[in-house]
Design a protein that fits this description.
Chains: A mainly alpha, B alpha/beta, C mainly alpha
CATH architecture of chain B: 3-Layer(aba) Sandwich
Number of strands of chain C: 2
Order of helices and strands of chain B: EEEHEEHEHHHHEHEHEEHHH
Radius of gyration of chain B: 18 Å
Mean pLDDT of chain B: 89
Largest sheet of chain B: 6 strands, mixed
Mean pLDDT of chain C: 86
Number of domains of chain B: 1
Strand order of the largest sheet of chain B: 6-7-8-3-9-10
Oligomer: heterotrimer
Low-confidence stretches of chain B: none
Shape of chain B: globular
Helix content of chain B: 25-40%
Strand content of chain C: under 5%
Low-confidence stretches of chain C: none
Number of helices of chain C: 10
Distance between the termini of chain C: 55 Å
Number of helices of chain B: 11
Chain lengths: 334, 241, 265
């Protein structure tokens, strides 16, 4: 589920970064209000590191021989509460992207949103917490853990689909992409849900007081029944999904109504010089300015492009070699 | 008297009594070994001295009475070196770890820098300054943890099981360095020969009470006494008999 | 045990690199962060059919890796991690975007193929650019810089401490897996019925540790307050690096250097 930088456009990546930064800011304020952040800090850090380590532990999925591992959002939220869990998840994702190339850096906003904001600030306060506040038993804990993880992952995966399509990187039609992503993540979500539930069940049997966090404090969804919420989420998914697929089928090129396009077609049109400038820049920069270079002067450009590419490669190689030679010399003399 | 404990009791939240009506006086500069079987109350006593667990009774530390609102002051007087250095080294570099305490006390960066470098030199770990704790040896981590406490300029040092995770060479170095430090020390340990070598006085605990208190050589070699406190004597332990 | 140690080894390797003392190591963290972000934005902002215009960015990678003395196989390993999903998108483009772009030595090249190459190139570049930053800048410098940039203290402290305890917790987890494998009769991973207990144990142990860490912090008079440290002034070399880095990122973005080069012949 970790999105790479190469799959996002700058506008989508930037927008998601803003959204996630907002959510993080909100969580920081929330924690300050709670006034327990001081004591919570080491707990968040160590439990965050725990999630990281625990993701390394795979388990065998019965009957398949393949293996999976735990997710993080709901597990963290159950122990730390929503805002603290979001911060912790954000930090985990930052470390993963910086140190392990697991997810991109510009894509952090999108990843934090899909894997942090959704489970910690949406699913946890609306679904997980109110359900357990009504009555806390290990059965209910198990049920709600599985449901929360599955729904969280479904929405998250849907986020990945939308963000990738809006970035204009993929040619996959919306429906195909969604039909690939959602079922795969349903399976993953079920496994992660079961593992999260069994970890919670064990912790609850040994140290039930850990869940005090869940049971105390106000909750947004106190008066909404779980059934209604699940139905609401299902409808939301259907409406958004259905609407988008209708739109996508009207524009067979995928989601061509992406932000860049809207700007390109409307705003710049009125501004003659700017438009001309941007076109001329595009002409210089893009190797393949659009689909139609076969009949334009695309061919000439491409030959020059190929020769130039080879030269660039050679240049890069030569510089690399030169530096390493110099370094070796330095080492020998030193 | 730098530590004066009277009628001191520690009761855990689950109701178990860890320390019962203890009286203990320690003079400035003394090095006291705290010996006893697991569960005898060593850790409870140590942690209650810095207010991590609450105690009942009176406890004067360097003339300050142990109370909630005086905790920060007391914690600058007593430095605790915990058993597992990984719990104590939580910053990105060893330098930051050693500077952590003084920074919280509002000491300016220039002074902190000198102090950190001085402590690094004192404990012979200058080479660790910019390292992270990730890949240090047990001995290096122990020294670094001690430096984090020493940078607070404590008068009293409390060490919980300091020889844990150490190889013989690092243990030797630890003894040498601790011997040279002028601080009052309370050392909880199962390592009896370590206690014998470093501490002139031994306090033997049993079930939350002081079972014996006196010169180390007398107590640690008293087979009957030690066995009565569920601790094996040094002589038997070293197979001298 | 190689499979479970790889993450830990990765941390060790990066930490070793970042402790180096080359010219790029000595640069101010702020300029390194800014140039990295500028590069990422410029690379990502190309459309999905760009190939040639991306190539000049390789110069930065080659030069920086060379000066910092970081072997290329570290880059390759990281690219492999980022690759699967990118490949999935790239290859699916090959199926859905079959418009013929041009023919090369009798082979038809479709727009989908071009976009696949473009995605791969972008992946390699983005991963390398981030790796370069991390391999030449210790985490402590980065977090200090984040404080300067007024990122909330709790977030920066959390980042520092999480990073610190990942190593510790990975060791814990590895010890548990090792102990498990020694008695599991050849099974590599716990069964689903054991996983709750297995991971739950690790969780409880880490929570106990958090408690001890908190105590150790309290003993050193910790309170969560904003810390402002002195800003290290930028040196001339920092400005030079910043200028060249930013300019090259932007020039490569708007001028297709390979096409210009090729046009000379």
């Amino acid at each position: 589920m970790h999105m790479a930088d190469a799959l996002l456009s700058t506008s989508v990546g930037g927008a998601m970064c803003l959204a996630s930064a907002g959510a993080i800011g909100y969580s920081v304020l929330q924690l300050k209000k709670e006034d327990v952040s001081e004591k919570k800090l080491p707990l968040m850090a160590v439990v965050g590191a725990f999630v990281f380590a625990a993701q390394m532990i795979n388990f065998t999925i019965p009957g398949t021989g393949s293996s999976g591992h735990i997710g993080g959002g709901i597990l963290l939220a159950g122990i730390l509460g929503g805002p603290a869990a979001l911060l912790t998840m954000a930090v985990i994702l930052i470390v993963q992207s910086l140190f392990f190339a697991d997810g991109g850096v510009l894509a952090l906003g999108a990843n934090i949103f899909n894997m942090g904001v959704i489970p910690c600030l949406v699913i946890y306060p609306l679904l997980f917490k109110p359900f357990l506040q009504k009555a806390m038993t290990s059965t209910r804990l198990t049920i709600i853990s599985i449901i929360s993880v599955v729904i969280g992952l479904q929405i998250g995966a849907f986020g990945v689909v939308l963000q990738t399509l809006a970035s204009g990187i993929t040619e996959l039609p919306f429906a195909t992409f969604a039909l690939l992503m959602q079922p795969i993540h349903l399976a993953i979500g079920l496994m992660e849900g079961i593992v999260t539930a069994s970890v919670f069940a064990f912790v609850y049997s040994v140290r039930p007081e850990i869940f005090a966090n869940v049971l105390n404090g106000s909750s947004l969804g106190m008066n909404i029944s779980l059934k209604k919420l699940v139905v609401a989420f299902a409808i939301l998914t259907l409406v958004v999904g259905g609407g988008l697929s209708l739109m996508a089928s009207e524009y067979p090129d995928g989601l061509e109504w992406s932000i860049e396009h809207i700007i390109g077609d409307t705003e710049l049109e009125g501004n003659g010089t700017l438009h001309a400038l941007s076109e001329s820049i595009q002409g210089v920069t893009a190797f393949l300015p659009d689909y139609d270079f076969a009949d334009g002067d695309g061919k000439g450009t491409s030959v020059a492009g190929i020769i130039g590419s080879i030269l660039t490669f050679a240049l890069a190689g030569a510089i690399g070699l030169l530096i390493s030679l110099c370094k070796k010399k330095e080492k020998v003399t030193a | 008297m730098i530590i004066d404990i009277k009628n001191w009791s520690v009761i855990h939240t689950d109701g178990t009594k860890a320390i019962t009506n203890m009286n203990l006086q320690i003079e400035a500069g003394e090095k006291v070994a705290l010996v006893g079987a697991n569960g005898a109350g060593k850790s409870s006593l140590i942690t209650s001295l810095v207010g991590i667990v609450d105690g009942v009774g009176t406890c004067l530390i360097a003339g300050i009475e142990l109370k909630k609102e005086k905790l920060d002051e007391i914690r600058t007087k007593i430095g605790v070196v915990f058993q597992n250095p990984d719990d104590q080294l939580f910053m990105p570099t060893i330098y930051d770890d050693i500077a952590f305490g003084p920074r919280n006390l509002g000491v300016d960066e220039e002074t902190i820098k000198h102090r950190v470098e001085d402590r690094l030199r004192l404990l012979e770990i200058e080479h660790l300054k910019d390292k992270t704790a990730l890949r240090l040896s047990g001995g290096e981590k122990r020294m670094a943890a001690m430096a984090t406490v020493l940078s607070m300029k404590p008068e009293i040092m409390v060490l919980d099981e300091p020889t844990a995770f150490l190889d013989p060479k690092a243990r030797r170095k630890l003894i040498r360095i601790l011997k040279d430090l002028p601080h009052t020390m309370i050392i909880a340990t199962h390592d009896l020969s370590f206690a014998a070598e470093l501490c002139s006085r031994t306090v033997l605990l049993k079930q939350g009470e002081i079972f014996a208190d006196g010169k180390s050589e007398a107590i640690l070699q008293d087979d009957e006494l030690m066995e009565a406190a569920d601790v094996e004597s040094i002589a038997k332990y070293l197979n001298y008999k | 045990m190689a499979d479970v140690r790889s993450k830990l080894d990765n941390l060790y390797t990066l930490e070793q690199f970042s402790a180096g003392s080359s010219a790029v190591h000595r640069l101010h963290p702020l300029v390194k962060i800014l140039v990295t972000v500028a590069y990422l934005i410029c690379i990502v902002s190309f459309d999905r059919y760009t190939v040639t215009a991306l190539l000049p960015y390789l110069l930065y990678v080659v030069i920086m890796l060379g000066i910092a003395d970081i072997p290329y196989n570290v880059v390759f390993k990281r690219v492999l991690i980022a690759l699967p999903f990118c490949l999935f998108i790239g290859i699916s483009n090959m199926f859905f975007d079959r418009q013929v772009v041009f023919e090369l030595f009798g082979m038809t090249v479709t727009a989908g193929m071009v976009s696949l190459i473009s995605i791969l190139l972008k992946t390699i570049l983005c991963v390398s650019v981030v790796l370069i930053l991390i391999a030449v800048t210790p985490i402590a410098s980065i977090s200090k810089q984040l404080r300067q940039l007024r990122v909330p203290e709790i977030f920066v402290s959390l980042l520092e401490m999480t990073y610190r305890y990942i190593g510790v917790l990975l060791e814990d987890a590895i010890a548990m897996i090792t102990a498990y494998r020694l008695r599991s009769n050849g099974r590599k991973w716990p069964k689903l019925s054991e996983i709750g207990f297995f991971i739950g144990q690790l969780l409880l142990r880490s929570m106990d540790r958090a408690e001890r860490v908190y105590n150790a912090m309290k003993c050193r008079c910790y309170s969560l307050q904003d810390r402002v440290s002195k800003q290290i002034p930028l040196k001339l070399s920092d400005w030079v690096f910043f200028g060249i880095g930013l300019a090259s990122a932007i020039v490569f973005r708007f001028v297709n250097v390979p096409v210009l080069l090729g046009g000379l012949f």
